[in-house]
Design goal:
The chain is mainly beta. The chain contains two helices and 14 strands; from the N terminus they run βββββββαβββαββββ. It has two domains: 123 residues, no CATH class; 158 residues, no CATH class. Strands 1, 2, 3, 4, 5, 6, 7, 8, 9, 10, 11, 12, 13 and 14 form a 14-stranded antiparallel beta sheet that branches.
Length: 282
């Protein structure tokens, strides 16, 4: 007899309206069940304040549990896959800050690393500047937060073409204008538990997408092209030995039905061969 379970939840107080990973907590009031509890993570909520408008706790907790019973013996284990806690604040009208850390409750070193830790400025969703440690979003699964993944882990396509380090120090500009979305940025290639530097090289990211949902009478029909140029360095330990990575992503959704796809290719360096991958997820 076997029983498998996966549990995950996350909450946040960030109010910048571009990144779906960080929903506003005010919208949680309209959600069913325990998700409405996230509004209680808001510590300060003063929309009219000129100094500090909002302060909230952020984080996520994801666990796997397994129970096997057989003649050869029994196995019962619980593994905490992600445990993160931080704080976010909106201040001075158009600024926000987020500092979040990852912790290991499995018995190892309790304090693991900084994850999202940045300052962000935006007057409207069309133009958002982010500086600090944050995700370089490319490929289908690489651009999807672990809060929003349909599967329990990212695919092998993302594991081979996306980078082994999820959070990089850098600056990016992103936005949404009508049906268009875009991101451009430059990031450090170094691997660091805190903030990385540019001594180990850097990489540039450009992403452009358009949602054809209205034209096709669908809830969503996003087509997005991602491109990454990586300046390889001998000290580069936060990216892969790939000089150029391109990814064509589609996300089609209508009601409860959907189809996500990813066609990605990359140029290898040194002893790393070129890569080509296809992902189809109905």
């Amino acid at each position: 007899m076997a029983c498998l379970a996966n549990l995950g939840f996350g909450g946040t107080g960030e109010s910048i309206p571009v990144d779906p990973e960080f929903d506003t907590l005010a919208a949680a009031d309209a959600r069913p069940g325990f998700e409405a509890l996230w509004r209680h993570a808001v510590l300060v909520d003063r929309p009219d304040s000129l100094l500090i408008k909002r302060v909230a706790l952020t984080g996520r907790l994801q666990a796997d549990a397994v129970s096997f019973s057989a003649n050869q013996g029994d196995v019962d284990e619980v593994a905490w896959r992600r445990a993160r806690l931080g704080i976010s604040a909106d201040f001075l009208r158009n600024f926000s800050i987020l500092v979040e850390g990852e912790y290991d409750p499995n018995g190892g070193s309790f304090e693991e690393r900084l994850t999202d830790s940045y300052v962000r400025w935006s007057r409207d969703p069309r133009f958002v500047i982010t500086a600090g440690k944050h995700t370089a979003k490319f490929t289908l699964d690489g651009a999807t937060s672990s809060k929003l993944l349909v599967t329990t882990e990212r695919s092998n396509l993302a594991n081979n073409l996306w980078y082994p380090v999820e959070y990089h120090t850098g600056t990016s500009v992103s936005g949404q204008a009508g049906q268009w979305i875009y991101t451009v940025g430059g990031f450090s290639s170094s691997e660091s538990s805190w903030f990385g530097d540019f001594d180990a090289g850097y990489f540039a990211l450009a992403s452009l997408g358009y949602d054809f949902g209205k034209l096709l009478s669908l809830d969503r029909a996003l087509l997005r092209l991602d491109y990454v140029n990586n300046q390889h360095d001998s000290q580069n330990d936060g990216t892969r030995q790939l000089s150029n990575v391109g990814s064509l992503v589609s996300q089609i959704e209508n009601g409860r039905w959907g189809l996500w796809t990813d066609l990605s290719a990359a140029n290898g360096e040194a002893d790393q061969p070129d890569l080509l991958g296809v992902q189809i997820m109905p």
